[in-house]
Each structure stands twice: as C-alpha cells, then as structure tokens.
Amino acid sequence: MEPSGPPALHPSQYPPKHLASRLRIAFIHPDLGLGGAERLIVDAAVALQQRGHEVEVFTSYHEDGKDGRSFDETRDGTLKVHVLGNSIFPRSILGRFTIVCAMLRQLHLAASFIFASWLYNFSSLPGLSSLLVPLDAPFTSSRDWSPRRQLEPFDVVVVDQLSTAIPALRWYGLNRVVFYCHFPDLLLASGPHGVSTPHDPRAGKPFSFASELRSYYRAPIDQLEQSTTGEADKVLVNSVFTQQVFEATFAQLRRTPRVVYPAVDVKQFGNAVVSEQDKWLVADDRPTLLSINRFEGKKDITLAVEAFARLRASGDGKYANVRLVCAGGYDPRLGDNVRTLASLQQVADRFGLSQFTYSTNDISNVASPVPARFRPSISAKVPDDAAPVRSPDVLFLLNMSAAQKQLLLSSTKTVALLYTPMYEHFGIVPLEAMASGIPVLATETGGPTETIVDRGLPSEASSSCETTGLLRSRDPTAWSQALADLVSLPEPQRHLVAEAGRRRVRDQFSLDRLGRDFELACRDAAEIGYPIPYEAGYKKMVAFFAIAIITLAFGIGAFVLGMER
C-alpha cells in the first residue's frame, strides 16, 4: 500500500507570507465626519502613511470642500478618501432603526469595495480594460469615485466601529482584516428617550422594562456583532478597560484583543494661539477651569458644576474670581443633549452662579424633540462689553470650533481640565490637556486611569514630578478640594506637572507610537500564511453570502419596480 503523503499542516504551522516593506492598507469607516473615532482613524492612517505605507480610506459619507464637516487631512489631499456605497440605504428610517441601516450601509460599502477589487483582477480580459478607470488616474477629492474604478489588491484592511462586513471582506475579497473595536456596539446602543446616565458596562445595563423590550430587537444584532467580530484576523481595542469589557461581553470568542492607544499630535498643542474673533473667551484675567465633553447625561458634567460651586463657596472668598467653561458638542435634535444642558443651567441657578450659553452656530430654527418650555436658553450672539454676562461664572460653549478649543487649551489662564465621565472607554481630551501642559482632574474609573498619573502634587522641595493630574471618586466635595489644590498650586510646581504631562503624552501617546502599533498589527495579520479559502466553512459561508446578496438584490429590484408602477 502506497503512502498517502505527508499529513496536512495545521494553520498554525504554515510559514508566514513574505511581505514587502511597504504595505497597501485600506481603512473602511462608516461615516467619516468629526468625532473621536474618526480622529483616531485619520491619525492612524496618516501615521502609517508617514511610515512609508500606501494608505487609502473608504467611507460611505464624507463632506468635502473648504467648509466640509471633516478633518483637514481628509480634505486637503493628505489622505486618499473614497466615498462609495452611499446610494441605496438611508442612515435611518423615520429616525429609527439606525443600527440596521448602518449595518446595511457598511455591507453596501464593502460590496462596492470588493467589486472594485474584482475589476482589477479581471481587467486583463479583452475589451474590459478600456472601460475601466486607469489605476494611475489622478485623485482630486473624495467625490471622484466611479463604479468603473478598479482597486489594486491591499495587503490588509482595517475596519472599525461596525464588524458586519468583516466576513464578506475576508471570504469574498480574500482580505486579511484588522478590526479596531472602540467599544462593543451592543453596549453603546442608546436606550429609551431621556437623559443618559453613567454606569459600569462590566456590570451589565441597569434594568428597565423599555430595555427589556428593546433587547428582543437587539438580540439578533448583538449575536451578529459577536459572530462577525470573531472573524477578524486581529482585534484591537483602545484601552485595557475596553479590553476587559470586550472579554466579558464576547466571552464566547475566547479572545484577548491587543491594546492600541489613541494618540494626539503633540506639536499641535501647547503653543500660544491668538484669535481676535474669539478673544472674548479669555478676555479677563480670572483663573479658568475647563470642561470639554459632549452635552450628554452620561458625561456627568453636573459633577463639574457642583464641584465648582463648592470651590467658590470655600476659602472665605479666596476662589470667588475663578470661572468655569463647559464646552462641547450639542445637537438640538437629540433629546439627551437638550435635557442635559437644561439641567446644567438649573444646577448653576440653584447654586447662585451667573451663566451664559453661547452657540457658535445659530440653532434656533432646528427642530427639537423636547417641548419648548423645557429647552435651555441659548444665544448665538457674543455678549458686548457692557453686558453683565460678558464674564459669567459659568460659560456653556456649544459646538466650539477647533480654533476656540486651541485658544482655551493654550491660554495661560486655564489652570485645570475637569474630565467628569465615569467608565469612559479611553478619553482623548485628557491627553490634549496634558499635551498643552494643563493638569487634569478626572474620575478614577475607565480609560483615564491609564492615561493620567496621580502620584500626588509636588512639594516646594520637589525638583521632578511624575504626576500629570489627580484622580478622585465621584464626590463633589472631594473634587472641590482637589480643584482648590490645583488652583492654588504655585507656579514652579505647576511647571513640573505641566512638563510631566507633556512628557507622558510624547512618550506613550504620540502619533509615532500609534503608527508603530498599527503597523505591527497590520503586519501580523497580513503575514498569516494559511490561505483563507482553506479555512473551515469557507465554501458554506461564500454560498450563504451569495444567496443573501442575490435575495437582497431581487427584493430591492421588486420594490423599485413596484414603486414605479
């Protein structure tokens, strides 16, 4: 009897693929607007590009042009951004089913991406090449995508936020996939209308009948998220805290994701900024406490106002000249935002603090789900010099511009940043403050415990310091005492804390480090030598997706024909 040959190799025994020093890397992101997740993706793409790799970004929504609500790097040609898969599915249906629409939009995006890759593979067929957009066609903006565009294969695809399209990208496009999980979506899903409240995601969601009913709608979506996340070749998360949440949430996957921290461009912070238009924000000489967060209940900005009020009432008038600026994103279409801001104004009134709420854009005509009598008072006009609210105790600054943010962070009058969210996944704002030399006061939960170092404030005899801020429990009294310590900190000791913050950001959270960490993850995924078509269940999965896509196409076609008749 002849030998049947050597036994088949286990996937772990396959030798790694040989890769060129320069990788082709694609980023697939749902909607490329302005936000923390988008900032991370842009930073990672730019950092990889600076390390010599060829990077392109694919999204289903991007605002191009001078005034587009997107980052400069995606509009000025620094990054190649392509918009595709944006012509079938809306973002929501009557304001609901946003997650289902987001998943369908991502599948459409992935299908368009895969189709463009197929065009490249079949471009050698007679007559087809003349119909396709040449590979060397000049890139002008994100609006120049064409269904006839072909894509040269990528070594690895980076997907973030939604995992729905990972199996299609791997098993139809034969792409190795790195998935960046900012946080499990099933824990981010919004609950019933109202003001969101902070809670520990590792302990599950607070019970409510509305949440129980919603769980039936979310069940198949959550199961799909877990299954598709498990298909990624490498999974990354933004903090050790998120890593713990991931392992508890997706226990069936039995995977420990790799931590890759977000980063900030140190060179953009710490420099003095002059802005005549926004000079009124720092017009007086009062010490300023700064809070930067979206106006959402779960961000717990109430803690900042309450701690500030207690600070003002302490010290026999010693801190009467300190002011508080609460700045962040605000959308009047979101009930949580509206109710949160109204509640903050009421808290300020209850403590007898003068206040003024200013919006950098006029939102008076934007529809709101909250009845008019419960909405906050907002002004779109800068108060003149004679107005009593020109220099209020508390300034609520809505939808601040990048210039306004830089002005506040660079001002020598800003003495501390208050970062109030509990169980925050990571938190980029403390890094921006530390890079600007501003001490941070934050809750001792979540991601901030990994970025802020609290070794106690330095004494007069100290010549060096590791402390970059203070971590405290959620207690307004403890926070007011910590604020008193920061406001009263002598200039030499303040300088030590500022230098410690800049040094920590530069060493641990720089763009160069982000690029190295992402490069390592991409290489680890791209080097996997075991061919994807040999994986168990590959043929079944391809057949399943083929049937699903054909069924969906026929369903859409029948719906369109029915509408036309």
Automatic annotation (TrEMBL):
List residues of the Glycosyl transferase family domain: 393-502
Enzyme class, broadest EC rank: transferase
Q: What does the UniProt record say this protein does?
A: Mannosylates Man(2)GlcNAc(2)-dolichol diphosphate and Man(1)GlcNAc(2)-dolichol diphosphate to form Man(3)GlcNAc(2)-dolichol diphosphate.
The alphabetical list of record keywords is: Endoplasmic reticulum, Glycosyltransferase, Membrane, Transferase, Transmembrane, Transmembrane helix
Q: What is its EC number?
A: 2.4.1.132, 2.4.1.257
Name the source organism: Rhodotorula taiwanensis
Q: What is this protein called?
A: Alpha-1,3/1,6-mannosyltransferase ALG2
InterPro entries the UniProt entry points to = ALG2 (IPR027054), Glyco_trans_1 (IPR001296), Glyco_trans_4-like_N (IPR028098)
One GO term in the molecular function aspect is:
GDP-Man:Man(1)GlcNAc(2)-PP-Dol alpha-1,3-mannosyltransferase activity
